[in-house]
Amino acid sequence: MSKKTGPEAILPSYEAEAAGWAQTRNQELWERPALEACVAGRAPGLRVLDLGCGSGQPIAAWFVARGDHVTGVDGAAAMVEEARRRVPRMEVIHADMRGLSLGQSFDIILAFNSFFHLSPDDQRAMFPVFAAHAAADARLLFTSGPDAGDAFGTVRNSPVYHASLAPKDYRAAMDAAGFEVIWFRPEDAELRGHSVWLARFRG
């Protein structure tokens, strides 16, 4: 696998395409059912960690508007600048999610349409990172593929890589890191065909 098209191309691709991507990013918030599941029964004021936050719109902006405290992390500096400009009430950090160590805990951890750009080995290594940033009873929301495999595509004019573990491997990784699955919705029509996981941190 070459660096030109593999997982190491992701940050350069989003660096190059940040402005155009932010302008054309779908703002319909089709993700709302999954986001609402994260906050169900919980008052505003939650601490939210958005990994691979992109421009901050519309997901981080939805949490901010709800009254939650959002910390966004993105490995592309140009995307960080987009987020700071577009959602000024969120804190944005320029960092790679791999090996992240903020020394803080959060009530919601998101890796929505970002985590699946990592290699399978890097994805496995992220579950202890999620756990290290999870408060008691935290929710974890992330996207994957419906089954094990990888795929290649583009974001505007730049290459992007996607990978997925098998569902049983995600379940095992979450269990080992202290998470229990609430639901897995593979290729869900309500979520525009995305495969989405919601889990709870049991500690």
From TrEMBL:
The keyword Transferase applies. InterPro entries: Methyltransf_25 (IPR041698), SAM-dependent_MTases_sf (IPR029063). The keyword Secreted does not apply. Residues 48-129 form the Methyltransferase domain. GO terms for molecular function: methyltransferase activity. GO terms for biological process: methylation. Keywords: Methyltransferase, Transferase. This is Class I SAM-dependent methyltransferase. It comes from [Roseibacterium] beibuensis.
